[in-house]
Amino acid sequence: MPSIAWNCDQCKKYTLIVVTAGQDILCPHCQKRWAQISDLSTVFDQCPICQCRQFYLQKDFNQGAGCLVMLIGILLVPKTYGLSLPFFALLDWLFYRKVPAMVVCYRCGAEFKGFEIPSHLKPFLHHIGMKYDKYR
Ligand SMILES: [Zn+2]
Ligand SMILES: [Zn+2]
Fold this sequence. Notes:
This protein is of the alpha+beta class and 136 residues long.
C-alpha cells in the first residue's frame, strides 16, 4: 500500500498515512487538511505536502547492516586470502538491490513508500539538497 510520512507543520508530529487515489491527505493528529491526491501516478509532479517539484530516491535500507556485511568480509580476508572481499561486496550489492526504494521530497522531507517510482528520479544530489537546506 502506498503511504506518505511527513512532519506535520501544524502539530509538529511525525505523521504516516496510507493513501489511495481520491483521498484527502489529513493529519491524523490535528486534522489539518494538506491536500487531496486525485491520481497516485501524479504525486511526484508536485509534493502534496509542500508543492515542491523535486524529489530524490532513497533506499529504505539499514546502513548498519550493510557495513556489518562488509566488516565480516574484511575480517575474513586473512583466512580466505582476500577472496572474501569481492564475495561480500557482491552480497552487499545483492542485499542492497532487494531493498525497496522510497521517494523523498527535497523540501519538506516527506517520505513516499510503496508508490510506483518514476524512472527519472535520481538519488540525492547534494547541490539540489543545498537549495532546500533553509526549509529543513
Ligand atoms: Zn498535524
Ligand atoms: Zn514536500
